[in-house]
Amino acid sequence: MFGLSNSIRVYLAVEPVDLRKSFNGLHGVVLDRLNEDPCSGALYVFTNRRRNRIKTLYWDGTGMWVAIKRLDIGCFSCPKGVAANERLELAPEALALLLDGVDLKQGSFKPWYQR
């Protein structure tokens, strides 16, 4: 993934999102569901229902970035326990760990096929 500053705010959408959405669709999700400004400079992270894909939306000051990661096997271990239609704030380091396969609840690395 591209380098992120430690000062960037990262928000994980708790509810799954239809990842066929692109720039405008995800922009609407940030506005309507998360009650945030997509152009605030924060990085917004979305998962699909099966949690085998993650899509991010980020405004860098000149335009929007959309990035996606799809797993061939297994699923991401996303934190739960927050009310629906809310977001969970993650440290940029936690996002990097999540994308690398670390279970954020257990603090352990699990191969994708064991989930």
From TrEMBL:
UniProt superkingdom: Bacteria
Pfam family, one: TnpB_IS66
InterPro entries (alphabetical): Transposase_IS66_Orf2
Protein name, as recorded: Transposase
Source organism per UniProt: Pontiella desulfatans
